[in-house]
Specification:
two-stranded antiparallel ribbon, alpha+beta, 25% strand, 15 strands, single chain
Length: 284
């Protein structure tokens, strides 16, 4: 990604991202405060996952077009933060069997703004009386293995507005299944984030935090000498379908979001695992 781009390219990126990511508009200058160039990384304890301008790891995705973002590498996950939506574009991490449990609890923690992110973020007032829960992308339940990872999971750069019933219900059910799969297969690579499908995007709070229409999660597990993958698309409110009915192939999710998941796999393996779901691998 170029460090500097022309003003004309900025307008192209803005228009494209507005159409493809936000899929909505808001006339308030409180929401669209500025557009910024990507900031590649912060000085985190796991910054060795970042080389030059490319993050390493099978869990890291990429878009098929330029996005406005700040990429940060946290103790337990990587995040692409969007200053327009005030949400992550995506959060990605590897969860091992050993990391599915640990001594560090979420008790006493509450969401706070991310000190590593200089961009405008959501705050607790945005959510107050909004009817939406502060929904984790990388769940606190996956961060019990490390105290810093647990604390950082409560940054607003890892948060999105979720329907309360959905947050406590189907989304939580899927998070629990991810931990089960990590224990069964030794590790699971996770990518998740918001999805916008409507023409008008609902915003909450003085910071204009975008409310996603749906949430996605793409998963990859090692399987003998290869891998197996699955994706989920779940509606942010009123989602009553069984998990298996929310599942799709990674290829299908990529086509919808214009994203490329698990691109660090060898091409032959990537193509094979992303165009099908092997139901028995996932207990369906």
């Amino acid at each position: 990604m170029k460090k500097y781009i022309s003003l004309a390219m900025v307008f192209v990126v803005v228009l494209f991202i507005t159409a493809m990511i936000i899929r909505g508009s808001n006339d308030s200058e409180e929401v669209y405060d500025e557009f910024v160039l990507p900031i590649e990384h912060n000085d985190s304890p796991v910054a060795d996952n970042f080389v030059g301008q490319q993050l390493l790891g099978l869990e890291i995705p990429r878009y098929d077009f330029e996005v406005i973002e700040q990429i940060m590498v946290k103790r337990g996950f990587a995040v692409s933060f969007n200053p327009n939506t005030k949400l992550p574009n995506w959060v990605a991490y590897e969860l091992t069997a050993d990391e599915t449990d640990g001594p560090w609890a979420r008790k006493g923690l509450r969401f706070v703004q991310d000190p590593d992110c200089p961009l405008r973020q959501a705050d607790n007032e945005d959510y107050r009386n909004s009817g939406y829960a502060r929904g984790h992308l990388a769940p606190a339940g996956d961060m019990k293995w490390d105290s810093l990872a647990m604390v950082e999971s409560f940054y607003f750069t890892n948060c999105m507005p979720q329907d309360i019933k959905f947050n406590n219900g189907k989304w939580n059910q899927l998070e629990n299944k991810v931990r089960q799969w990590a224990r069964k297969y030794g590790r699971v690579y996770v990518v998740c984030g918001p999805v916008f499908t409507e023409e008008d995007t609902l915003r909450i709070g003085a910071n204009g935090v975008a409310v996603p229409d749906a949430c996605f999660k793409a998963l990859l597990i090692p399987k003998e000498d290869t891998f197996s993958a699955i994706a989920f698309l779940m509606w942010n409110g009123g989602e009553e379908r069984p998990l298996k009915d929310c599942a799709c192939t990674v290829d299908e999710l990529e086509a919808m979001l214009s994203m490329d998941f698990f691109y660090n796999l060898p091409d032959g393996i990537e193509n094979a695992v992303e165009d099908t779901v092997v139901a028995r691998d996932w207990g369906f």
